[in-house]
Amino acid sequence: MKNLGTAPKKEPVETSEPIKRLRRSVGNFIYQRESKHLLYFGELAEYHTAIALDLAHLFYLRLMRFNEDPSCLYDLETVKIFEGAPLPTIGEALGHVLRQELGEKAETAVQVVEIYPGVGLTLEYLKLMLARGIFGTKENRLFRLSYQGIGLESLQNQFAVLHGNDELSFEYSPFAQNDHSVPPSKDTLRVLFYNHENFIKSNDSSDHLSLEKFFTEKTANKFIAMRITDTKRKIARTTVKGKGVDLLPLGAVLKQCRQSDPFWYVKIIRKYDEGFFLPIENEENGTSLLIAFSSGKPMPLSGFRSVADMLPIPTI
Amino acid sequence: MRFQLEEFTPSPVFRKEIPKVGGAARPALSSADLDLEFKYSFLDEKGEIYHEYAISSDSTLQTLASYFDKLAIYRDPALLQYLLKYGVSKESFDTSLFPILRTRSPQLDLVAAQIIGFLQSRKPKTRISLLDLGCTLAEHYDLLDALLKASSENKLSALDVLSYCGIDQSPLLLSVARLLHRNTDPKHFRLVRSDGDSFDLPGENFDLTLSVGVLNHVQNPLALLTKLISLTKRASVLALWVTLDSDSFWVVNQSGLPFYFFSKKELREVSGQRPEGRFFELDFILESQDAQRRFVGDLPKGARLGCYHLVFGVDLPFSFGKKELIF
User: Fold this and answer.
1) What is the CB-side half-sphere exposure of residue A33 using CA atoms within 13 A?
2) What are the mean pLDDT values of chain B's consecutive 10-residue runs (327 residues total)?
3) Which residue pairs from B175-180 have beta carbons closer than 8 angstroms and sit at least 24 positions apart in sequence?
4) Helix B171-179 and helix B59-74: axis angle, to 10°?
5) Pick among A15, A28, A119 to test the B interface (most B CBs inside 10 A)
6) Which of A294, A302, B199, B264 is most deeply packed, by most CB within 10 A?
7) To which H or E segment does residue A147 belong?
């Protein structure tokens, strides 16, 4: 048996914590039907667990862009997963901000910068919105859009294969060694999206961009998709991949939001994918997904709540 | 609470004996008897389930991820640079820089590239027609592209040399294959959906045919192998699971699907239908030596099983340095 080590923790929240020893198997389990008699076990490679669903989702969006009905090509359960995923909410909010910001500024250059882009689902969604004329027709578009993903060097080639020779220009920049700062903005309006959800799901244990640094970034338009704990205090959790992460409670995140911009809007997907974390015995184990954006000015969006109106700080 | 995790390979606790059956009979254990679960499973110190996290059990998604991973490596500019520097050969494929090159599928692509090179040198202005049976994402096309570029110092590519036809049963995988090859000329890059041997390509045959493992898990493997060989003009590159014993038989594979072991007698029969051709044995990997366990339940006791890497060649002036398969 290979020892995977103890999940790393950056800042111990508690001292003298008990250690729970578990044996982990990841793979294809085949049972005699309606029994627990295991007939076969096959280990799954990392790429199976890491990107299978995201890849499938990406091609689902791409087929839609090319005016094909992808739903008949996918398992119904899979389609339900796509429909319940946070991406449409993120895309809707992103589209809302871009339209609001740029509706009166034709010919403006906009760059969407995504930290931890994964396989590029946000980029793919942007391409779908462009194709559907959300930002005007090809001839009469409101702005020039470009995209930059900042992520792991090991995923750069995969990203290029998925998005090269396609309809929206992109850059993929690996995290610089020992440099956790966000590259300076070009002479364009920049929308900064910290995909903390992808960070949580990745195998990367380095914190290339801290939440504190993200919230203090000068960019007016900031987006974040992040896991939060339903407890009232920060809590250390371990993902099924064995990665240790600290989850903040909603109140702590809202506090940082308010300190950085008076105009933050949030939506909470409760109980989202809670099983991705190992449960802690005798503890409240609820987690949710928070999707939020700042706009520097009032920009209400249906389904999102204004942080300014969320006083006192709520608990979930 | 902190977690200390150890990787653990569970052993099947109950194995149903699969009766040995000959000919085209189906396995006694069928996919209808099985539940497949893709998941993370965590057991505590007492061996009880502490937590489970399900991954999509749609095996097509796992196939998509697996073959996309290959395709992305085949398109990696670093791979092309490596091949340009070290050449396209058995030796250059034996590298830790790109471990995938040591695996079955690229090894067979290397042979296919050798045949393409030979045919192309004879008729430089004529495209080589290639049938890829069980093409998934058409990733063979991408490695052949890299091999053609590397062996011609970037003067040739699959776009110029090949007329490709990929066949697969999955509409999803074919759709994705099309999306990933949008730069190709539709006249010379075709994708056809078909279950098993039901495809119909009237009046066509192919300079080169290629099938890696697919023939073993279709409805009628022998009929499909026969059809594939009949469509082959010059060479067929194959990975086939075969029993060295007298009778063919079915088992159930890791996807819960029926899987057929050909007998050598059947290969002889197929070869007999094209007397001008010969099977060459490139390799034979005993199932017991293969790191990957592919089958549900026990294989027949004492069975001599393995995977042949074969070329069926018609009027080829070389034998790949390998022996002709003797039946």
Assistant:
1) 7
2) 91 53 50 85 95 89 93 97 97 97 97 95 93 98 98 96 96 96 96 87 93 92 95 96 89 85 93 92 82 71 86 84 67
3) B175/A59, B175/A63, B175/A68, B175/A70, B175/A73, B176/A59, B176/B64, B176/B68, B176/B137, B177/B135, B177/B136, B177/B137, B177/B138, B179/A59, B179/A62, B179/A63, B179/A66, B180/A161, B180/B71, B180/B137, B180/B138
4) 30
5) A28
6) A294
7) strand A143-151
Size of interface A-B (CB pairs under 8 A): 233
Q: What's the pLDDT score for residue B135? A: 97
Please answer whether residues A223 and A293 qualify as being in contact, where contact means their C-beta atoms are separated by less than 8 angstroms: yes
pLDDT, residue A1, reads 40
Q: Does B46 touch chain A (CB under 8 A)?
A: no
Compute the Cα dihedral for B305, B310, B315, B316 and give only its sign: negative
Residues 6+ apart with CB under 8 A from B114: B320
What is the structure's pLDDT at B271?
92
Residue of A nearest to B40 (CA): A26
pLDDT of residue B133: 97
pLDDT surpasses 70 at A211: yes
Q: Tell me how far apart the alpha carbons of residues B316 and A23 are, in angstroms, rounded to a whole number.
A: 54
User: Residues A163-198: pLDDT tens digits?
Assistant: 998 888 899 999 875 455 666 565 678 899 999 999
pLDDT above 70 for A30: yes
Token pair, residue B46, equals 């007492």
Which residue in the block uniquely carries the two structure tokens 């009469």? Answer: A140
User: Which letter does DSSP use for residue B215 in this model?
Assistant: G
Q: Helix or strand or coil: residue A316?
A: coil
Here the tokens at position A100 are 């609001």
Residues of A in contact with B82 (CB under 8 A): none
Candidates A19, A178, A301; CA nearest to B5 is A19
- Give me the DSSP letters along B47-112: S-EEEEEEE---HHHHHHHHHHHHHHHHT-HHHHHHHHHH-SSHHHHS-SSSGGGGSHHHHHHHHH
Give dist(CA B245, CA B264) in Å, integer: 8
- The pTM assigned to this predicted structure is 0.90
Q: Given a cut of 50, is residue A137 above it in pLDDT?
A: yes
Nearest-CB residue to A278 (from B14, B32, B51): B51
Q: Could you give the ipTM of this predicted complex?
A: 0.90
List chain B residues with CB under 8 Å of A63: 175, 179
